[in-house]
Amino acid sequence: MPEDIDEETALLSKRGSKSRTPLPTFQLSVIMLIQICEPIASQSIYPYINQLVSELDITGGDEKKVGYYACESLFFLTEAMTVLQWSRASDHFGRKPILLIGLFGTGLSIFCFGLSRTFWALVASRCLCGLLSGNIGVMKSAVGDLTDRTNRADAFSYIPIVWAIGASLGPLAGGALARPHDRFPEIFSGTFWRDFPYLLPCIATGSFVFLSCYVVLIFFKETAPSGNQKSWVQARDEDEGIMQKDHKCTGPLPLRALLLFPVIISISNYAALAFLSTTLACLLPLFLAMKIEIGGLGLPPPAIGFILSAYGLTTGLFQFLFSARLVRRFGEKRVFATGMIACLPVFVLLPIMSMIARRSGLTIVIWALVGCVLVLGAILDTSFVAIFVFITASAPKSSRGTVNGLSQTYAALARAIAPALSTSLFSLSVQHNLLGGYFIYFVFLVISGLSLVLAESLPDQVWDDFE
Q1: What is the DSSP-derived secondary structure letter of residue 187?
Q2: Whole-prediction pTM value?
Q3: How many domains is the chain built from?
């Protein structure tokens, strides 16, 4: 272990880095509490969302059409409409008030989701969550405020770890607490729980979000630069391919001044990564839930919740053990590209599992391949650490919220498109037997290949921070 640390230090020195600055542990812990709220609240619905849509009788009894009506896209679509405004507001008014508004909106919306008894009520609750949630961009801006080039990869490595924990706890709660009158009739026997069969997991996750809101209110200290801080307007030197300082201005920069090559290429790659990771996150539970004869594995919600929890656990362990070290050792670009490559075998293994299940049922080979998909998903998530470093380094300190908000806008659009496209393509493929029902996987193989081409546009080394 000491030899590994010495080798990492030498590599940091070769890349022009100083010794690592200690992380502000307590403040980062509060930020990570904010981070864990979104996956717990949003992904707790995944184990039962397809069953809920079926029970609302929107599909007319045709289970092949469930994918058309899955409403995961709504949060990201509405988030894309407002996240830039919330993030720009954090540059002017501070990170803390925006984070509190986002937490409150998340908690309120998940309670509304559990009380929904019509499809349009579900739509309204998911839209409310997206409109009021500006936390993702603001939270990453706060992490950037608290770190520098020497320790930023370490700090950002906690984001996918904490997300993975939330992605593990959320589906586990959703799968275990859904329809409590069926699973725990001795406790939840009243007609209320029959009328609102999915309220209990919403109560559990919503209460956690409101508790987190209180912790942030009491303990979080403002991290945004003061409003009168001077910033450099940046320009790109076309000959050298690097950033140059131009002239000073006071406070956050206008949006147009930020639309430069480092910002644009970082955001583009982040959007591609968000699209593919969200596709996997939404396609996997749908694949697990659909009957074997129509291209899935036909698993019940508790089993799906367990698998998704295992996915979160696998991702979290991988990030904790390897992500920051991999970035320091191999550089941000190589780590990012390697993660993107992991998408390719995922979209090969899913149709293979379907073919095996149709022929032999749920054999041990199926479960082994599910494990392989989980590991590949963990490798994919390592790319987030690398791209967060690229985005943060491309932004002036006084406009970090704006750049993160802009990146989150395009990532949210990608995440809005991904569920609708993936679930609709799944239904379209099996309904019309396109490529034997596996047309969807061919489409995403092509998209994964194109994303690798885009990743090559990133520089070999991250540009230096700008004031």
Answers
A1: T
A2: 0.73
A3: 1
